């Protein structure tokens, strides 16, 4: 009893320390040695618990190190299938599917029989990286060993296929699933519905929804929200509202994602007053706007050319201390620049550090584009240089935006310089930049130096 109590205390100590020593493989090894010094010989289950804990923390290398540690001990404890499953799962989530397959082979070599969890984790990992042939091979292998796929296995396949846009294949798997007597669950149906919605096949999505209800499988908030988003994407807002009413009548609690989806839908069809009303109604249903809610409504108002309303709402958000991030500020800066309120944008941009926000590549690109639009090319170039000085390297979009601004203002000598810089950094001119370049060449055919340079870079 004393030994078990000591072991539990050690495991609790390990969990506390490993959280503060995240990523420290050596610490995991030291912990096992510490248990030895206490006179306790860890068995396979103890090692499995440690491995599982490390994997849950995302520390796959430490988990593997513990596994290898068991192989060097005089009395080799046998790590259970559950321990191997934890590492296989962690490797797949890390994108190391080949390593996961190698560990799977190692298991079988050691006489450990993989179970349904082992196969499910590997199949999911393979499907995530579109390794369909290998996934099919594993599926066949497990059947031969009598480890038949269950609802979870089929759902993994259906979900992966739908995300790849392979709806016909997903339907075939669903049919096979039913023939084998496995009933689809809410996750299976949701995957099919999401697949159809992604391809704007809303009538097909509704057929799956109706089948789901007919089979006695109650749709959840996620399923309704996915359908609402699908209808909003194709601007069928009346259909989205119908589903919203149905959700409420069925006693489902709308989450913030549902509200964001509806706000997005109303903005998309230009119903900005309805979108604002939804934004301010959320709290009555127990939901507070998040950063996405704020970004969606502000973007919608700016795109409806209601910049004054958008800026007023933004100031109210700031006053109410809503959790706004750089994405929200980017939306406002872009809207201000498009509304030709450059001074407001510059003032807001200068306040970002004081708000604890660091401008990203997109922030700088927005400001450079705004400056170029007003013909302030020197200021735009200065911001481009400041961007690099602040450790935010310009990307292809930034250079293209600046060069476009130069070409629109006929600053061809400066554009030559930045074409070369962009090329040296491995970036290429996009379609808009090339179109402006062609237009410039067609009206400046006599400028040989410029044409010679173009021949070098195109």
TrEMBL record:
PPR repeats lie at residues 43-77, 80-114, 115-149, 150-184, 185-219, 220-254, 255-289, 290-324, 325-359, 360-394, 395-429. Belongs to the PPR family. P subfamily. It comes from the Eukaryota. The keyword Coiled coil does not apply. Keywords: Repeat. InterPro entries: PPR_rpt (IPR002885), TPR-like_helical_dom_sf (IPR011990). It comes from Arachis duranensis (Wild peanut). This is Pentatricopeptide repeat-containing protein At3g22470, mitochondrial isoform X1.
């Amino acid at each position: 009893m004393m030994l078990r109590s000591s072991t539990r205390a050690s495991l609790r100590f390990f969990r506390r320390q490993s959280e503060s020593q995240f990523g420290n493989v050596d610490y995991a090894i030291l912990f096992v040695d510490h248990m030895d010094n206490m006179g306790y010989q860890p068995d396979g289950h103890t090692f499995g618990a440690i491995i599982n804990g490390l994997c849950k923390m995302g520390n796959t290398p430490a988990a593997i190190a513990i596994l290898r540690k068991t192989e060097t001990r005089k009395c080799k404890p046998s790590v259970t299938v559950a321990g191997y499953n934890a590492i296989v799962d962690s490797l797949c989530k890390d994108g190391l599917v080949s390593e996961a397959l190698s560990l799977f082979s190692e298991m079988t070599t050691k006489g450990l029989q993989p179970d349904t969890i082992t196969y499910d984790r590997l199949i999911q990992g393979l499907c995530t990286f579109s390794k369909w042939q290998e996934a099919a091979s594993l599926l066949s292998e497990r059947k031969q060993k009598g480890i038949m796929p269950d609802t979870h296995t089929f759902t993994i396949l259906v979900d992966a296929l739908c995300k790849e846009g392979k709806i016909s294949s997903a339907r075939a798997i669903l049919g096979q699933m039913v023939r084998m007597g496995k009933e689809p669950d809410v996750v299976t149906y949701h995957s099919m519905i999401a697949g159809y919605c992604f391809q704007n096949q809303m009538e097909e999505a509704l057929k799956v929804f109706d089948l789901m209800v007919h089979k006695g499988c109650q749709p959840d908030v996620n399923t309704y929200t996915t359908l609402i988003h699908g209808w909003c994407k194709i601007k069928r807002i009346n259909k989205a509202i119908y589903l919203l009413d149905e959700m409420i009548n069925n006693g489902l609690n709308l989450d913030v994602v549902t509200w964001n989806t509806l706000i997005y839908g109303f903005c998309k069809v230009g119903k900005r007053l309805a979108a604002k009303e939804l934004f301010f109604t959320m709290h009555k249903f127990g939901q507070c706007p998040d950063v996405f809610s704020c970004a969606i409504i502000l973007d919608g108002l700016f795109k409806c050319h209601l910049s004054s309303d958008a800026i007023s709402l933004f100031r109210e958000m700031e006053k109410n201390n809503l959790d706004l991030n750089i994405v929200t500020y980017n939306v406002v800066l872009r809207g201000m620049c498009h509304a030709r309120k450059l001074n407001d944008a510059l003032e807001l941009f200068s306040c970002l550090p004081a708000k604890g926000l660091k401008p990203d590549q997109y922030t700088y690109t927005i400001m450079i584009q705004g400056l170029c639009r007003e013909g302030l090319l020197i200021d735009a170039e200065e911001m481009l240089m400041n961007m690099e000085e602040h450790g935010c390297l310009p990307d292809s979009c930034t250079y293209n935006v600046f060069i476009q601004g130069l070409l629109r203002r006929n600053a061809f000598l400066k554009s030559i310089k930045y074409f070369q810089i962009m090329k040296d950094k491995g970036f290429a001119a996009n379609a808009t930049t090339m179109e402006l370049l062609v237009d410039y060449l067609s009206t400046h055919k006599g400028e040989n130096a410029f044409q010679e340079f173009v021949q070098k870079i195109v």
